Amino acid sequence: MPQQTQSFPLLDILRDGPAWLGPVLAVKAFAMVGIALPIVLQMALPAKQSFMRLALPGAAFLAIVIMAAWLFARAQRLGEKRTLDGVRTIGDVQALGWQRFEALLAEAFRREGYTVRRRDGSDPDGGIDLRLTKDRQTTLVQCNHWKAKAGAPIVRELLGVVVAEQAHAGIVVASGGFTKQAIGFAAQATQQGQHVWLIDGDELVAMILKAQTRDTA
0.90 exceeded by the pTM? Predict the structure, then answer.
């Protein structure tokens, strides 16, 4: 399995959170580091004043970093929303690049109430692409943006990661559909109590059109 580059938790929080979250976090960080922390330290170490000269610049820098991350995350989110809202057919889906395909799925699941962590790596193939969290349960998603049908090895690989990470379920999304072997393997796994769901092109389009009626902040 190719090595993956995990996304940054702060970006995930800012991307999934409400639009006001970034500015509020920046203000709170500035207040804590630039005002509250110096007061506490001055009371505890009255003879040490050097930290006071660094508190405000440090707090300002931290606030700027948070705001920059927030702007980047919101720009990503806006791009994901526009991608999803522009899809009407499976042809529209297959015309997307693999990164925009993952962004499309991230926004669709987000509108279903999931918190989404994207891989944000540079490899368009293999591994877990999305980690969904809802009701304290984790679901792992493998995105396959191929015109060819996804086979049983892909489903088997995903199931192995689901079991290893003790996740609630696994989902394989394949815009080109699945082979009979893949469908049979997923059905057998489900009968054995292992949750593996397959979403083909038609189901994906239906999922996207439904998600378009549920916009989120």
Answer: no
